[in-house]
Write a structure and sequence with these properties.
mainly alpha
Length: about 180
């Protein structure tokens, strides 16, 4: 089985990005979660080039910029609208993958809305988990198997972490 070298390189780079997405689910601090989300998106820009996924490059560049703004508490309503509009417009312009190319656009709109509206770690984790589910489908469709595996592990870690947070909050409310 000869895989094209770009798929092998893309998967290796995506594996590195995966470390940051896992860390974003593991931590229980909103700022740290968004810092790790920034690094994940930034590295996925590079891997998307190797997968020839121009929608991925575009949406990850927008996501990295947005995550930096969230981290610095600069994401206003106007910036949220801007990121949604630019994500949809640029995503559709560079999409060469049909319906598959819509998935990163849907994912970035979903997480951008979450970035603006969700403020507690519990709701943020829920938004991240949903976003992971969308990306699992996308990564499988573009043969980015390392990212699909990492996203699956990430979603699992996120669910475990969320359940633990909910149980801890329930037990502290009963005290």
């Amino acid at each position: 089985m000869d895989l094209p070298i770009n798929i092998v390189i893309g998967n290796a780079i995506s594996l590195i990005a995966g470390v940051f997405i896992i860390l974003s689910m593991w931590v229980n601090d909103e700022k740290k979660a968004y810092k790790y989300q920034f690094w994940n998106a930034f590295i996925l820009i590079i891997s998307s080039v190797f997968f020839l996924s121009w929608t991925g490059v575009t949406t990850m560049a927008i996501a990295a910029t947005r995550n930096a703004m969230v981290y610095k508490d600069k994401l206003t309503f106007n910036w949220t609208i801007f990121f949604i509009v630019i994500s949809v417009v640029l995503g559709l312009i560079v999409n060469t993958m049909g319906i598959v190319g819509w998935l990163p656009i849907i994912a970035i709109v979903q997480i951008t809305l979450c970035n603006y509206y969700l403020k507690t770690i519990k709701t943020i984790k829920s938004g991240f988990i949903l976003n992971s589910a969308i990306y699992i489908i996308y990564f499988l469709a573009i043969y980015d198997f390392s990212s699909a595996i990492i996203e699956s592990v990430t979603a699992g870690i996120g669910l475990i972490s969320l359940v633990k947070l909910l149980m801890d909050s329930k037990s502290s409310n009963n005290d």
